[in-house]
Design brief:
4-stranded antiparallel sheet; 332 residues; 20% strand
């Protein structure tokens, strides 16, 4: 969302710059075809912005937002249709009624410039805040119950693990490293939109899980119980197990080296399906990567199925639940 807001802000800034240029050239001193056309351009920009943000919000509620894509074809199509409608209405309105002058400048142009400046400042500021500091996130599934419920809204602390340079994988000013037990929001580790995991394409989508394995850790699940470095993990008050049934081990004939390779290449879920839910590993977490699992262990499609999460795909740490009011608080 922050990149979308940034480029919308750039568009409004360009409109504002050109408006000041045309004002200095004396283009806005009368109610002419040019002023009506430029007013229509402003109406098109506002209509496009509102429609795109509405479409993005609706897509986000359905969990269809792909963060690696600036705008989807659907969003652009709806935005373009709204822009055409807005421009047509503004131009028609300009023809049907004459706009007076205010301080020697067409009143409609003056109002457009004021709104353009307001939108430019607000959108650009919001995009910077969302990119550097805080991101809003909505829980899309039950994989993190009881810690988070479906529909919970929370803020994600984005600067705690470092500030990412736009359009790169480099992060600066890391306040602290990722720790075991952190609840992180990350971009799903897939570079192929055609790859199916967890029942569909997860390419470019944001996930939320808890870190259970650090780089170099040996991680294993035996009969549903998590082991790290050959020790049973017992201090997990957040973990939830709903099923009485446990799947038997289904990967006995796979060599350890091949198993590790299949896991790192996100193949285990496709090869062994639900059998790896309760009997997984052992695997060694690669350098600069992390193993994550949902707190709702029997209802979570996580690293057991599709492999480790590279550090550069981690966006931030779950910080504060702000909606609904009954669930406001800091997660543990």
């Amino acid at each position: 969302m922050e990149e979308k807001l940034f480029w919308i802000g750039v568009l409004m800034g360009l409109h504002l710059f050109l408006s000041h240029h045309f004002k200095e050239k004396g283009k806005f001193k009368a109610d002419t075809g040019f002023t009506r056309a430029w007013h229509a351009v402003f109406a098109a920009l506002i209509s496009f912005t509102l429609m795109v943000l509405l479409t993005v919000s609706l897509d986000n509620r359905r969990g269809d937002v792909v963060t690696t894509m600036l705008f989807s074809a659907r969003q652009l199509t709806y935005g373009a249709l709204a822009a055409l409608a807005g421009a047509a209405y503004a131009y028609w309105k300009g023809l049907s009624q004459k706009t007076p002058l205010k301080d020697g400048v067409n009143a409609a142009m003056r109002e457009d410039m004021e709104w353009s400046e307001t939108v430019f400042s607000a959108v650009l500021l919001a995009s910077v805040v969302m990119y550097l500091f805080v991101q809003a996130f909505k829980i899309p599934s039950g994989s993190m119950e009881r810690t988070f419920l479906i529909g919970d809204h929370l803020f994600v602390n984005k600067f705690i693990y470092g500030v990412r340079i736009p359009y790169t994988k480099t992060k600066l000013f890391k306040f602290r490293p990722v720790k075991r037990g952190d609840i992180i929001v990350f971009q799903f580790p897939s570079s192929d939109p055609r790859e199916f995991q967890c029942g569909g394409s997860q390419y470019g989508k944001d996930f939320i899980k808890r870190v259970v394995g650090m780089p170099g850790d040996t991680v294993q699940v035996i009969n549903g119980q998590l082991y790290v470095n050959k020790k049973k993990v017992v201090d997990e008050p957040y973990a939830q197990y709903l099923d009485q049934f446990r799947y038997p081990k289904g990967s006995d004939r796979t060599a350890p080296g091949d198993y590790q390779t299949f896991w790192e290449n996100r193949m285990l879920g496709k090869m062994f399906a639900e059998y790896i839910r309760d009997n997984f590993g052992p695997v060694v977490v690669p350098p600069k990567e992390y193993m994550v699992m949902g707190d709702n262990r029997d209802r979570s499609c996580d690293s057991r199925y599709w492999g480790p999460v590279p550090e550069n795909l981690i966006k931030g740490k779950a910080w504060f639940t702000y909606w609904p009011p009954s669930r406001i608080g800091f997660p543990e």
